[in-house]
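Example 526, ligand iron/sulfur cluster.
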Amino acid sequence: MDVIKNPNKIAGEQSIAALYNDGKVRKRREWRGLKDTMYDFGRWLHIWGILVNVSMGRGFIKGLFRYRWMANYLAVPHMVDKFTVGQRDETLKITHTAIDYVVYEVATIVKGCLRGDRFAGNDKKLSDRTVAVDENAMTAYMMGFPTLFAAQREVPTLFSANLINQYSAVHYIDVAQAFGIPGDVCPMPETEAGVSIEDDLCVIGKCAVQVNTTCDGSMMGNGIMARRLEEDYGIPTFQLAAPIRFKSEDVQKYAAEDIKKAIAFIEDQTGAKWDWKHYFECAKRVNNTTRNRLEWLDINSTPYPQFVGAVFCLYNDTNYMGNCGRNPEFPSIDEKIMKLVQKGYQNKQMMAPEYRHRCVVWGVEPHFVFDMLYWMMLCWGVVPLTDMLSMVIKDQIADEDTPENREQAYYDMAYLVENMIMRNHTHGGYEALLDELWECCDKMNADMVMLWEHIGCKALTGMHGMFEEQARERGIHLVWVSHDLCDPRIYTRQAIRDQFNQYMRTVMREEPLDPSIEVLPDSYAW
Ligand code: SF4
């Protein structure tokens, strides 16, 4: 592809190398010129404000002493700094608007979980109107329950904890393996299982719903967690089983029926009644999210992509899975981001001195080493246009309250659950994993794919040869980058970057834009 040079001057320091040391945190904050440094500092204070607010919630102190994972949250401001590395002007504001809201959402979950937790806040009223939901699933079946709290207990213990501190999961992985779970299981469900074995999940909820998304590993973890919930804490747990071959027409009736059963189970356990008016309001918001995301992708397919990287992925994760239209605040955040994206595009904002390659990131959870996607731009001028997890749904769901749409709604909720952000490509056969990648490359005008190959994800590794063969036929540069998700002992951050460095030097025969960041001393950092 033609190299695109940044038409705008990059204010402040030109290399991020000076920020790193061998410690857990950076040496200092990034100098981005006066205006952007002040803006960034203001947002940094805002993040501290969110943390202080959580610390004043009921059950916080008890939770801090009971749960090992709680200590990670002190490093949240440092995490946000890693999302904004090298960014200026509109792109800096886009990242902050999105990630700061994600932080706020997670903080709300942590606060709610600790408040209702039997061992911390012990707010029985809240717990009685809570459904403990599965982190690795769309919360579509909660869209018609405005009075209930959907507690995603695993989000603060595994998912966001690992974004904050790369070593947050290793203790729980060891616990799970000491219990007898093999070491080649995906560390994500293995960590969740380890947290449950150690009894380190908040105990909250009148009932629980688990979903078989994403995969067999996840089902293994769910089994262990369900035992803990039902046998030790008397919390009845429903198993929602989304079809694996979800693209086939003949499984949709079954999927819709299962959603009906999940809703009936929640009604039965909590006494709450399904509210169609609220459901369709949520459905409108889901459609709004989909329209906005498709427009952001359109802009990312031009020479001046704006909303990219791990923040794009995480914002979509939060907006679809945890929120699923239930939070009325998301549309205004979407709107703010949209204005910034359009302005950034008009001003031809770029996040590096030049873009040499346009890359689609395929594979699971690239945001577990999330500064990698910003580093690719700054070090090699490779812009990550989108990632597999952000290619979630394309279709609009029924959002008008009519008798026919009430029946359709069960199919729509099933469609959302089946298309949960990770499993909609790791399951569903080669059409979902392979064909959709090439469609995505065409649409995004990509000349490169970074295959973020998770060695414990069998669904993905099984098609290694087919990826190779088809990329060659299409003339797409395919870079394999192996990792082990949330276990940095298997692949350190530098070991991950080195695979990319090696490909760029030996296959592409290119020199880095910024050689001083090819190797970074962050293997032990948060
Ligand atoms: S990364 Fe793969 S193995 Fe791990 S939870 Fe996701 S689909 Fe399952």
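Summary: DSSP finds 20 helices and ten strands in the chain.
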